[in-house]
Specification:
Blueprint (H helix, E strand, L loop, with lengths): L2 H17 L13 H14 L4 H7 L9 H21 L2 H4 L2 H30 L7 H50 L2 H5 L3 H8 L1 H46 L2 H35 L1 H6 L3 H51 L7 H42 L21 E9 L5 E10 L4 E5 L6 H8 L7 E6 L2 E2 L5 H7 E4 L10 H6 L7 H10 L3 H6 L17 H15 L3 E5 L7 H15 L3 E5 L3 H5 L3 E6 L2 E6 L1 H7 L2 H13 L1 E4 L2 E4 L2
Parallel strand pairs: 3-8, 3-9, 6-7, 7-8
Antiparallel strand pairs: 1-2, 1-4, 4-5, 9-10, 11-12
Length: 668
């Protein structure tokens, strides 16, 4: 793996490792804000409250609102989404004028063919002076050249459209992916991963066909229809009127179906996101699903999601299935009507044989755009629905604004100053209340408390995965919100309970801890932590492939990888979420040794699930119901006989230990 790829993966790694270390203290795992937003989108799309419930329980068309209430709103919303999508896609607009010009020239070229056919018939085959082979041959040759020219121009136009469309899709994917990684962890916690994946993949893919063809087709087909009718009027305005009269009923039908189709496709995009979320959960949770015999439950949930998507897809398909044959029906009726009227009354209007044949050719030309109208509408509605979801993601506010250019943190261990910090999630009450504490540079600090006491949220604030609702945090004398992102990622590092491992070699995974790290840097970090023997025990040492999410390693070994990354980064502030809480004794010894070495010369803050960590800390912070209720050394807090002493006695009882001469010893 190249250094550039490793550098690109560094920020993603920081977000993954930091985010995976936290529980959900405010209940963000309940019904998510994003789910509510999706439901609200569908309500607006249907034009009436409760529409989403109708869609979820039955066919998508059941969700359509009364035309009088929602039709105008839907059209305005669809056009707004389309304009916004095009405005946010500079790659698609680049060179678009020339591409449209090519397409229009091709359309005009196709319109000249019926004129040449009329000329060949009237002035070549049925001329007053008889058959004119020279004129006929020249006209046919001109027609052949025009056909070849139109074909070549169409090919150039299509290639330009595809190139512009793919550039736009690439840019949109990159922007959406970057936005996902800039969202606070609260948004990630509140959103199912499959739905975010759907935004970046399948929703963007729905725009492809529209960008490659549908958008320009609207312009070209409009020119073809108006140009064809105008040319027919030159030959016989009565035949053009017949064609318009037959087409008139189709337009309001298409307009009505377009509104319902938009609702149906927005529902489809929502259902696709739900299905991807269920599939992602079932695949990632395959081991516990099998271990606990939950295959039927997982299968039922996935089947239900697929069934909902199927109903939504069928609801959308019904509208397309109705629109598509309407074009064919109009074509057949128009061709028959023009033939009948032209043969019956054409001579009275001065329409000769060549003009009638030209009009029939023109009817055939107009059949194509009208027949495509259903397909283009389908592409447009699908694109608008997908665009709306992607724009909704891009409109999600980035609450953690980054300073420009930002302040660099000093080298060496970093002091932490927390001043009257409070924090509240979007839902629920306060999680932290008026926390005020100083952590000296180079100190070992343990954070203890019962589940839900706020200790994990406090750790989250130290690495700026969220900002305090009240108060401030300074690290190394610099306000945390003022620190440059790159400096923060380098100087402040978190090691979670289960370090994230990429599908790459051990060396590549460790090197992601610092952009530009070399193999020698990786080996040095391993040696500094005393983990050379462990690396040597792996099948291929540093070149061992770890598999997706580190399948080739145990939980403890994944922790060792995370520790090596942290050592490689050389942070001044190290935040640990009890790295030895779920490993076997042998690995725990390696981890403990590595942790001691990792903490040397740094400020270390440990979220301590085992109070043995607190026993060795310089400073213990005791949280209870979001408040910092006690602080001091282990011995001081035990002697105080307060909340920490209660927690310590409970921990000793649960671990089967007693206190002898102030030291915890296991009972015989």
């Amino acid at each position: 793996m190249s250094d550039r790829v490793l550098d690109d993966g560094h920020d993603e790694l920081v977000a993954l490792e930091h985010g995976s270390a936290f529980d959900d203290p405010a209940g963000l795992g309940r019904r998510s804000r994003r789910d509510a937003a999706v439901a609200a989108d569908d309500d607006r799309a249907a034009g009436a409250p409760g529409a989403v419930g109708a869609v979820g329980g039955g066919d998508a068309e059941a969700a359509t609102a009364p035309e009088a209430a929602g039709g105008g709103q839907e059209r305005r919303r669809a056009m707004a989404v389309l304009r916004r999508g095009l405005a946010d896609s500079p790659e698609l607009r680049q060179g678009l004028r020339l591409t449209v010009l090519f397409a229009l020239i091709g359309a005009v070229g196709r319109l000249t063919i019926p004129v040449l056919v009329q000329q060949v018939i009237d002035k070549g085959l049925l001329a007053d002076e008889g058959f004119r082979p020279g004129f006929t041959l020249a006209a046919c040759g001109g027609a052949a050249l025009i056909v070849v020219g139109v074909a070549l121009l169409s090919r150039v136009t299509y290639i330009r459209l595809v190139k512009a469309a793919e550039s736009m899709l690439r840019g949109l994917r990159v922007r959406a992916f970057a936005h996902v990684h800039r969202l606070p962890m609260a948004d990630h916690d509140a959103t199912r991963r499959g739905e975010l994946t759907s935004r970046v993949t399948s929703d963007i893919e729905t725009i492809a066909r529209f960008a490659q063809y549908g958008g320009v087709a609207w312009i070209v087909d409009t020119v073809m229809i108006t140009g064809t009718l105008a040319l027919m009027a030159v030959y016989a305005w009565q035949l053009a009127l017949v064609t318009i009269v037959l087409a008139a009923p189709i337009l309001p039908l298409f307009r009505m179906m377009q509104r319902r189709q938009l609702v149906a496709y927005e529902t489809v995009r929502t259902r696709v996101g739900e299905t991807l979320a269920e599939v992602s959960e079932a695949v990632q949770g395959a081991a516990p699903i099998r271990a606990y015999g939950m295959q039927r439950r997982a299968g039922r949930r996935l089947d239900a999601a697929i069934e909902r998507q199927l109903r939504a897809e069928m609801g959308a398909a019904r509208w397309f299935a109705l629109m598509f044959p309407l074009g064919d029906a109009f074509g057949g009726m128009a061709l028959a009507a023009v033939t009948m009227v032209g043969v019956w009354w054409g001579p009275e209007w001065g329409l000769n044989a060549g003009g009638l044949v030209a009009c029939l050719f023109l009817v055939q030309l107009i059949l194509g755009p009208i027949g495509e109208l259903g397909e283009i509408l389908d592409q447009t509605q699908t694109a608008i629905a997908g665009w709306a979801k992607v724009l909704d993601l891009l409109d999600t506010p980035i609450t953690l604004g980054e300073p420009e250019p930002g302040v660099e943190l000093p080298t060496g261990p970093l002091a932490v100053a927390v001043r009257h910090v409070g924090f509240t999630y979007r839902t629920g009450g306060p999680v932290l209340v008026d926390v005020d504490v100083d952590m000296p540079a180079g100190a070992s600090v343990a954070i203890v408390g019962e589940t839900g006491s706020g200790k994990t949220t406090f750790a989250k604030l130290l690495v700026r995965l969220a900002d305090p609702s009240e108060g401030s945090i300074a690290v190394g004398g610099v306000g945390l919100a003022e620190v440059a992102p790159a400096s923060r990622a380098e100087r402040i590092r978190m090691v979670p309970q289960d370090g994230f491992v990429f599908d790459a070699t051990l060396a590549d995974n460790i090197a992601m801890g610092r952009p530009g790290a070399t193999r020698d840097d990786v080996r040095r970090s391993i040696d500094e932590l005393g983990l050379g023997e462990w690396v040597a025990s792996l099948p291929r040492g540093l070149e061992t492939e770890l598999g997706e999410r580190g399948e080739g390693l145990s939980v403890g070994e994944r922790q060792l990888v995370a520790l090596c990354r942290a050592q490689l980064a050389d942070p001044g502030l190290l935040v640990l979420d009890e790295a030895t809480s779920a490993v076997d004794p042998r690995t725990e010894r390696s981890l403990t040794t590595a942790l001691h070495r990792l903490a040397e010369g740094r400020t270390t803050v440990s979220v301590a699930h085992r109070l043995s960590t607190a026993e060795q800390a310089d400073l213990v912070l005791v949280f209870d119901s979001g408040r910092l209720v006690e602080r001091g050394s282990h011995d001081e807090l035990v002697a105080l006989g307060g909340r920490y002493a209660e927690l310590y006695r409970s921990w000793l009882g649960n671990t089967g230990q007693v206190v002898v001469d102030g030291e915890a010893e296991r009972r015989a």
